[in-house]
Design goal:
- The chain has one domain.
- The protein is built from two helices and no strands.
- The chain has helices spanning 2-22, 27-64.
- Helix 1 (2-22) packs antiparallel against helix 2.
- The two termini are 31 Å apart.
């Protein structure tokens, strides 16, 4: 569950900039939000890759035991 915690913490760290941009109209915060969303995208891709590797290893182990 640590991956979920990583994502939750990452999103929480963006909160101030989201508020500054969406509620206060701060353009610089919008730039930071875009950058932070890119970090989120990279983290999501990393997790997707890890999941696929785990699934593949499980499939290979399953096939190897027959």
């Amino acid at each position: 569950m640590s991956r979920f915690t990583e994502l939750r913490d990452l999103l929480s760290s963006f909160e101030k900039d989201f508020i500054k941009f969406y509620e206060k109209g701060n353009k610089s915060a919008g730039t930071r939000v875009r950058k932070e969303m890119n970090e989120l995208k990279k983290k999501a891709q990393e997790i997707r890759k890890e999941i696929q590797e785990i699934k593949q290893k499980a499939k290979e182990a399953e096939g190897g035991s027959m």
